[in-house]
């Protein structure tokens, strides 16, 4: 959790060095403001003040202090960059960006659906035209002994009420007889 609770090689923590005081072994800043990152404490001190940070850290449990210091450091850096809004300004910019990207994603999805619909519709029309089976000519040598069917190929979506059958099954329409010139439908 905390990076180091002891002073490294006798050098004071960034807070004590900035405040020009002796860093004691129980310094509350030492675990969170290392001497390698002096700007972190300088920003926090400039925005919140050392005494306020000390009070805040003393009120927290030791397990919560590191998260609190990281939050203070983030807010202090944001306040220095944007003194009016701080991190709230950055958050609102990101929220607007997310909303814009969500609208763009919705528009792209709608466009994809439109293209898929147009492609599906044009594919169905060309497929239907190429698969349409024209009526058979009555076979003259049999003199009407074989039934004369008018066969149509219809996709299942066009004639779903006719059948729930599998691909290629012939279905006789209601009220028509198959042997006396009735129609047969092929459903894919």
TrEMBL record:
Q: Which PROSITE patterns match?
A: LOB
Spans through the membrane: none
Where do the LOB domain residues begin and end?
11-112
Highest taxon of source: Eukaryota
Q: Which Pfam families match?
A: LOB (PF03195)
The UniProt annotation puts the region (Disordered) at 165-188
Q: Which family does it belong to?
A: Belongs to the LOB domain-containing protein family.
Q: What is this protein called?
A: LOB domain-containing protein
Give the source species: Dendrobium thyrsiflorum
